[in-house]
């Protein structure tokens, strides 16, 4: 088991076919859509690779700008704004060989760190996730994300909380 992963932007040279996170839809999105979204400017995907195998993808996440309407958020989540800009953590996946070792939390911290840096430069108040299932929603709730009104699968974390978590 490797222990040192480097987070880098996805390129055409990465071997995306070998990633098996256990969720077919996430595997296929990386293989078939991630580069397309990157070229279109709709999302940026970052992968974990190692110095020994720089082309092999062990994990990935994708970030995209987004905004949420106040009527979908609690007052605390919206801070009173009618629309709230943020970053959608559109995908987060970890190879099954890495499950159960705490790497999922490390991958999330990697994604949150990147989102916080972008928000510091360009604004944004929330990180938003759309959990694929109850297990994923539970993972995000464990990491302090809270559901929006009326949708337990859509969760948010305020950027102020992200910065506090990263300190």
Describe this structure in words.
With 167 residues, this protein is an alpha+beta fold. The chain contains 6 helices and 7 strands; from the N terminus they run E-H-H-E-E-H-E-H-E-H-E-E-H. It has helices spanning 24-32, 34-40, 75-78, 103-122, 134-142, 159-166, and strands at residues 6-9, 44-49, 59-69, 83-94, 126-130, 146-148, 151-158. Strands 1-2-3-4-5-7-6 form a 7-stranded mixed β-sheet, with helices on both faces. The longest helix has 20 residues, at 103-122. The model has no long low-confidence stretch (mean pLDDT 93).
Helicity level: 25-40%
Derived structural class: alpha+beta
Strand portion: 25-35%
Sheet with the most strands: spatial strand order:
1-2-3-4-5-7-6
User: End-to-end distance, in Å?
Assistant: 28 Å
